Amino acid sequence: MKQQRPVQECKKRLLVVWLAGAGMLSLLLIAQSMQEEGPYLDRVSDAWGWFLPNVMPTLSLMVGVAVKEFTAVADDQRVVDSFLFNLSLWLSVGYFTLLMASISLQPLFSPNVAPLDFLKQSNLWLGPMQGIVTLALGAFFGKAELSGKAASEQK
What we know:
This protein is mainly alpha-helical.
């Protein structure tokens, strides 16, 4: 028998991971943007142009779903397969770890490469990872919606 978890609890945990990850990375970029001798100097908007497309589409979708569902007055007893949730959760954590490493570890791994050039290069590994994470999240949210429709049809 598959281990099941409450859908709402899972969605909240995933949203916390994405909000915390995006928040920490935003604070790091804000700090780097404010430095006079920061890594991006006069190319701060390029650094943000790299960062925002890596988190905002997925985060916006998740926040939109959360607002829609958390403001609805309903007794939601839906469950979802734990494996699908755990896969989505740990892929998300791994993705934010790669994002953080791409921003903060550049001087250690590529000291001779300009920070912004390294960020652009990091899209080689971040792009595929983002695709995998998005696929897992889409499967999780899609399965959660299907389980909700099936439950409402049984009533």
